[in-house]
Amino acid sequence: MRKSIFFTAITLCFAVTAALAQANATDSSIYQQSFQNAVALYYKSIGENAHIYNGSEYVAYSAAVNNKNPFFEVTSLQTGNIKYDGIVYNNVPLNYDIYKEEVVINRYNQNFRIRLASNKIDWFTIDNHLFIRIVADSSTKVLGGTGFFDKVYDGSITVLVKRRKKLDETVTSTEINSQYTEDDRFFIKKDGIYHPVNSKKSVMHVFGDKKKDVQRLMRKNKIKFKPFLEFGVVKAAQFYDQVKN
Question: Where are the domains of the chain?
Answer without folding.
Answer: 2-49, 54-197
